[in-house]
């Protein structure tokens, strides 16, 4: 009997940095408390597995009951019988923490070390909550701003010459970006306050900065993160990292070790199924400086903004090297068909606009029911009943498993 798509309902995560309207309007569900709604999770992560519509079952349970059927033998073997990706919709009202994610090897080693030390997985000071890496792809739904990777040394040198009091940091930069970054991350809070106090005074007395400038975000960070007269050391990074502006439909890939921080806007995010984060500022949460410095990539980065590339078929895709996931999109008009082929692994279909119907099962996706899980091993054909845009999150191109 052919497999059928399964309607799923995402789980809202109400982190403090989230907005109050975008996700409520996206789901067409009221937000009666007007509290922050930060992320909609569409996946099988144990922290927030999606619900199977019309059932008490969650997606992780559905997969656990028959991983070979749901994931396909290849994916089940490669990813230990778990869905290898997590698909999200984000609404960023206040800037997120500066962070990096570990490599697979570093995550496995760190997770084993913290397990052996008996640190609870929910502990605030825990770095590794699972043994997985966390490469990420972000695709803007609105104008979206983020920090991504270090600028080149000449551009960083200009900040040291233009920001009052930062000339004293030039000797560290002459020894390389890693030495400069290490100095400010290991400096005592008194030294951080000494270096940032003149800048804080300058920014409080000026206004009208453009969002493409560090001054705009540094001023916002001062307002958000200054506590009892003490400044957050993440403000240095705002001047030393690239500020990236994504227009709707544009994407960016965050690989292991690349420092980044989301600043404002709404986006889709597709990542490996992990919750491992090493933070570097703009947060009241735990910062493990030695662990951060051991894994951060301080190389100068030229941000690569991704445009969807043609293929396969009527789909366009965002090229990334991640084996855990891939993301495609398709625009179709009423009367067309959208076909999602899942020969080796599963997928999640997300409707952004319009309406589609899977005739064999009768499942309909529309603006009040946007997502479906597609088990591996089938080709799923949807009739477009209203002009639509759909996204397909699937498994990436996987290296061949070694012969046993």
TrEMBL record:
Cross-referenced InterPro entries: Man6P_Isoase-1, Mannose-6-P_Isomerase, Pmannose_isomerase-type1_CS, PMI_typeI_cat, RmlC-like_jellyroll, RmlC_Cupin_sf
GO biological process: carbohydrate metabolic process; GDP-mannose biosynthetic process
Protein name: mannose-6-phosphate isomerase
Family membership: Belongs to the mannose-6-phosphate isomerase type 1 family.
EC class (word): isomerase
Gene designation: manA
Keyword Isomerase: yes
Source organism (scientific name): Neolewinella lacunae
Any one GO MF annotation of this record: zinc ion binding
